[in-house]
Amino acid sequence: MKIFTYPSEAGEERVNEIIQRGLGFSDDDYKNVCAYIDDVRNRGDKAVVEYTNKFDSNIVTEENLQVTHQEFEQAEKEVGSTFLQALERAVDQLKIFHEKQKRNSWIDTPRDGVMVGQLVRPVDAAGIYAPGAKGGKTPLVSSVLMGAIPAKVAGVESITLMTPPMEDGTINPNMLVAAKKVGIDKVFKAGSAWAIAALAYGTKKIPKVDVIVGPGNLYVTLAKKIVSGVVGIDMIAGPSEILIIADKDANPQFLAADLLSQAEHDVMASAILLTDSETLANETSKALIGQLKVLPRKDIAEKSINDFGSIMVVPDIATAIALSNRLAPEHLELVVKEPFEYIGRIKNAGAIFVGPYTPEPVGDYIAGPNHVLPTAGTARFSSSLSVDNFIKKTSLINYSQSAFEKEAQDIIALADIEGLAAHANSIKVRMS
Length: 432
Known about the structure:
By secondary structure, the chain is an alpha/beta fold. It folds into 3 domains: 3-23 and 238-368, Nitrogenase molybdenum iron protein domain (Rossmann fold), CATH 3.40.50.1980; 27-105 and 122-233, Rossmann fold (3-Layer(aba) Sandwich), CATH 3.40.50.1980; 400-432, no CATH class. Helix content is 45%, strand content 17%.
């Protein structure tokens, strides 16, 4: 893994390469996704099934597009006890965390004769997208949990899951058991852009939703971008990233493993170590080479590390924090002697993992916070998926006649400045 000194010209060049990698798509990608979306809008389930037959399974039909009760029952017979135990723990801990995010409606009387407030209500319907991965053989079960649990906590009544089927036309049983565990109402066997379009516009079988969340490939992400505004979405997610700030006391084997945990996601993923110890930098690089050799996804991780990974030796931890705030990483690990002394200086990060025994994967699966996090520097202004993504806030206003008359002239003055005579007249006609 390349080691840089920072600040330096070479180090700055590397930082800019990482910042600029972002989410890119071609004109052809955009045209293709628009075509899929328009086709689903026009032909509904027929289009969804045709694309599913072409890319995932030729066994899926309009009749078996939705997972049946019998398929749920069969799935429960096929999953192992180890998975069920892990699922139970993850669901319980995620629910506890997201319950803390719930908002309540409120009413206030700030002035005589005036009542203002805010009504907090859940959306009616949400759509969760969960990639199948490797033809459904390695399903992203955690995506089901991270999407559905905050929706349920928010009070969403109808939740629909879209996920691509395996070649035999079924959904991985672990995915179905997880979906049932978190109370998902409907599961459909479709993926990619056509699945997003079906959720956004609805078909005869697939219900139209108000919010779509969940990760996916370029076409899924681009489809969400295009339909946003028709529906709410969680975020436009780019490639995964991890940034680790570590001092001389950190374990290089731990750090190498954590860097690779994100590098294996995608060739565009970014894995960065910032340290004030040149010795630790060299030891981590050696450890990473050794661990990389035995990874099943070695080719992906190696390209990610070569293209967008780096170890940077900084003069002090303060410099590391300043650079981290500039990069605004999705995942930030703080592996230093007194980590809690530095947390207040961290301004931009999707999630902070504190200490040597809090590697990023604990947040991916089981810790409690949501793992759907802002990427590509967007942690500067956005947050993780939460209960807030599934609620809407309605303002409430009530004036008595006396309160209205007390403030009327000020309203008229502001309306006149804006040249909105009808606004002013709406006030004038009520004045005694």
